Amino acid sequence: MRRSIPALAAALGLALTLTACGGNGDDGANETAEPTQGAATTEPALTGTLTMWVDETRIDVMKPIVEEFQTETGVKVDLVQKVSGDIRTDFVSQVPTGQGPDVIIGAHDWTGEFVNNGVVAPIQFGDKSDEFAPSAVQAFTYDGQVYGAPYAIENIALVRNNKLVPETKATTFDELVAEGKAAGVKYPVLIQQGDQGDAYHLYPLQTSFDAPIFTQTEDGSYTSELGLGGENGEKFATYLQKLGADKVLDPALGGDQVKEAFLAGESPYIVTGPWYTTEFTNAGLDISVLPVPSAGGSEAKPFVGVQGAFISAKSANPVLANEFVVNYLTTEPVQSELYELGGRLPALKTAAAKVSDPILAGFNEAGATGAPMPSIPEMGAMWQFWGTTQVQIIGGQASDPVGAWNTMVTNMQDAIDAA
Amino acid sequence: MSQQTIAHDSEHAPPEPPPGDARPVRGDSSPARDFSKGFLAKLVLVGLIDAIGLYGILTAISVEQWAIVGFLVLALVAVNWAYFSRRALAAKYLLPGLVFLLVYVIFTACYTAYVAFTNYGDGHNSTKADAVSAILAQNEQRVEGSQAYPLTILTDSDGDLTFAIVRDGQALAGTQDDPLAPAEGATVESDKVTALPDHEVLGFAAVAQRQQEIVDLRVPVSDDAADGSLRTQDASTGYVFESVMEYDPAADTMTNTQTGVVYRPNDQGQFAAEDGSTISPGWRVNVGFDNFTRAFSDDRLRTAFVEIFLWTFAFALLSVLTTFVLGLFLAVVFNDPRVRARKLLRALMILPYAIPAFISALVWKGMLNTRSGFLNQVLLGGAEIPWLTDPWLAKLSVIGVNLWLGFPYMFIVCTGALQSIPGEVYESARMDGAKPWRIMRSITLPLLMVSVAPLLVASFAFNFNNFALIYMLTGGGPNFVGTPVVVGHTDILISMVYSVAFESGLKQYGFASALSILIFIMVGAISWWGFRRTRRLEEL
Questions:
Q1: Chain A within 8 Å of B303 (Cβ-Cβ)?
Q2: What are the pLDDT digits (tens) for A62-73?
Q3: Cβ of B68 under 8 Å from any chain A Cβ?
Q4: What span, in angstroms and rounded, lies between the C-alpha atoms of A288 and B454?
Q5: Distance CA A372, CA A132 (A)
Q6: Do A48 and B239 touch (CB under 8 A)?
């Protein structure tokens, strides 16, 4: 068995402290709360240490939670802040060497890569899985096993500047564009793109043409079959060209540019997620959150992203890690607290029911029928082809949208087959 | 660490004891008996290095990294010998450099070469043992419809672990070898066993101590293995699991117990069935020259390759040329004594050099934005010129930004070289009636090239692999339309490697290493040829 020196030393130290209070046999949960007779001087302050990796965007949310976990169970959690660009790659490369953490906090679409590399351990929710929003558990499920405990859900929606347009009557995306134009500001609707494209923010429009990235079964889960080809996809490609020609979509408008434009009141509508709405409200904008209107006739379904915790396949503390991830992180008070701290909808139904914030409720409504982002490892290649082709259609580099779209589908299929 | 020792050594060495009685004593004393202040400091520092090294060795042993153990042992022996032996004066100064050379250059190079011959990457991330345990863990599933049992963990008098649960109102207990059986005399409180004769219930702290054992324990539900076994992950709830995959260490095969399909390891580092289907994850194996041949045989890479290859040369050549011409021009201008405030102007010229290149590239990316960029908005009065999204303009932008980043270097180099040319040479040329242009061509340039030409070759080699600039400024874009791998008009070879080997979803370290070795060979060959040419300049 590989074991690190610190863990060995900790175990040794623990063993020494425990010999002093050996023989007390209660059932654990109230161990620390209950004063042990005769061992008051050597009561172990810690029953172990967990190492947890968190990136800079999630660490402030996690800090108070792990502190409470420590007071409750006596398990110390070492929060290690990793750079969000590296955390995922580092985890994959370090777990096999035994240097990785016990727990990593991240997004559900990492699951495929982690499972494919054998670096995460399956977890068992038992009958608890019904207590989460269905898409949340679905998101962490890979080949029939659950690999992460969800705690928050997020998705994009249509955000309206109430000062510019107080009421939305539009039921289709075209009507929405017309309404935006009537408002008489610079941009009718903002959807971020950038040089490399942004398929994520265009996905509600694409699904409204019934062209999901992979075909979906009735319960919303994905098959591994590409679903964005065929007639529906071609219709969407043609529509994209139209939006590009009308300058509704613009490759020059990346995330920063659309945010600044919306903050400056240059557009009544923006399709974005909760990460920007806090900035909008902080800046004093009066906003409402609505579902994205359909462009192709069917319902516009955004991707749903789920935040959660994974357990390393080589954790030296599997029981403590499970205690934290499965039994602690998924309780109603903790999920409610995570919501208070992070401003994302809780994954647990009972905690989500308590959310009264109208903005988050709006996002929740817009994402109610959304499906989780696919987490197969090949998805990385999909994003690239997808965004590139879309931005080429929008920018006019690909003058034949249908041809470009079909080439993209062929290339995607080749990439899946080659993997 | 060892560098500090050197620094200290050289510090305490100069203030030798005053001449007189001290010297003879010092002469015949062994260093082991010479307890001067300096020696004690050295002892402490080397002791520190030894301690850290020893910790490293122990850690490496515990993770079974034998190569690192060997290296550390050798390094420690060498350090101790060099600093305590009196015959190793030169080694004292060479050793730290050698150690760092080994760690940072030779090891990295060798490791890259080694990785190039393996299939290391996503799906082949670790050893076979890791892959086997991951496959087993991923394919152990909860028996459908089975219950979640509140579980109690106990030890018997021998310290062996026992699981106890309550099923249909009856207390059951079992161990690794004894399937679950009715537990006589068990105390049950709210569906949980709280005590069992001859057994001791484990508390949370004790559980924390024996985690691995507890998680690894499988208690058979009955004598029939097909019924599954009871296990727990959090030490408080147990589930009945069954394994879909079974590993036979003797035959080295993986068997699917539900379908009966047998998987054998193939030479690609995966378990494969007869029909070719494989199970994930696989493990790292040596694949020979596969990665190298793939670079030439993969149809998907071929389409855009020629264009990228030519652009890489054009980019590197033009970058060197433009920066050199501008740098030289400015150096000549500011070398003229008639220019006022030369020092201030020179300092200003070097400014772009002081800003990290990738930040400059990001700033330029913002300034070149079609809609909101400074260049279009302010300087060109709202013109929407697609600097970064039109193929040719993007190439122009890349070279332009690299000119901004690179000319200060050439300026510094040329200024230095110009100042080393003796003034008498110019004077005699002028007396012979040479005009400035003639002086430039026949005297300045040839003399300058002797010292600058090798740097131009080095600059070419650097720009050939100038990944940061391309990645930060254009990301390789604008992308080619419809290519089977996503690469773009401004991608150079190294950024193409990155895009193909890492951004295509699956990370392929082996393939990336092989490609970077190919690029290294190319750059090496060009540099070798370049340096040979520059040597000829010296013969003037």
A1: no
A2: 999 999 999 988
A3: no
A4: 63
A5: 14
A6: no
**Which segments of A159-273 does DSSP mark as H helices, in order?**
173-182, 199-207, 230-245, 255-263
Q: How far apart (Å, rounded) are the C-alpha atoms in residues A158 and A292?
A: 5
Of residues A141, A183, A177, the one with CA closest to residue A161: A183
For A32, A311, B230, B426, the CA distances from B233, given in Å and listed in that order, are: 21, 11, 11, 84
pLDDT at A37 over 70: no
- Which residues of chain B lie closer than 8 angstroms to A392, CB-CB? 478-479, 481
Alpha-carbon Rg for chain A in angstroms? 24
Burial class (CB in 10 A: 0-12, 13-18, 19+), B494: buried
N- to C-terminal Cα separation, chain A: 33
* pLDDT (0 to 100) of residue B9: 44
DSSP codes of every residue in A260-276: HHHHTT--SEEEE-HHH
Peptide bond into B281 cis (omega under 30): yes
> Across-strand partners of A157?
A272
Contacts of B236 in chain A (CB under 8 A): 28, 323, 327
Give the ranges where B336-381 is alpha helix by DSSP (H).
342-354, 357-367, 374
Residue-wise pLDDT tens digits, B63-74: 777 888 988 898
For residue A225, the surrounding DSSP H or E stretch is: strand A222-226
Of A209, A391, A372, A222, nearest to A302 by C-alpha is A372
Give the up-direction half-sphere exposure of residue B523: CA atoms within 13 A in the CB hemisphere.
20
Instruction: Name the phi and psi angles at B145, rounded to 5.
Output: 80, 0
Q: Locate tokens 């175990």: which residue?
A: A11
Query: In the numeric block, which tokens belong to residue A98?
Result: 């035994």
Short-list A321, A355, A286, CA closest to A48: A321
**Residue B135: Cβ-neighbour burial (10 angstroms; 0-12, 13-18, 19+):** buried
Cβ pair A317, B235 in contact under 8 A: no
B197 in A contact zone (CB under 8 Å): no
Q: What is the pLDDT of residue B29?
A: 52
What is the distance between the alpha carbons of residues A68 and A73, in angstroms, rounded to a whole number?
9
CB B174 within 8 A of CB B165: no
Between the alpha carbon of residue B18 and those of residues B23, B24, B37, B219, B329, the distances in Å are 8, 11, 15, 79, 57
In B368-444, which ranges are continuous DSSP H helix?
A: 374, 391-419, 423-431, 436-439
Predicted TM-score of the model (pTM): 0.81
Strand bridging mode A48-55 / A103-107 = parallel
- Rounded to a whole number of angstroms, the distance from the CA of A310 to the nearest CA of chain B is 14
A356: how many CB neighbours lie within 10 A of its CB? 7
Q: Within an 8 Å CB–CB cutoff, is residue B69 touching chain A?
A: no
Distance set, CA B92 to CA A40, A408, B50, B82, B332 (Å): 55, 61, 16, 6, 45
Residues of B in contact with A389 (CB under 8 A): 482
Amino acid at B340: R
Picking from A97, A144, A380, the nearest residue to B503 by CB comes out as A380
Residue-level pLDDT at A164: 93
Q: How many residues are present in chain A?
A: 419
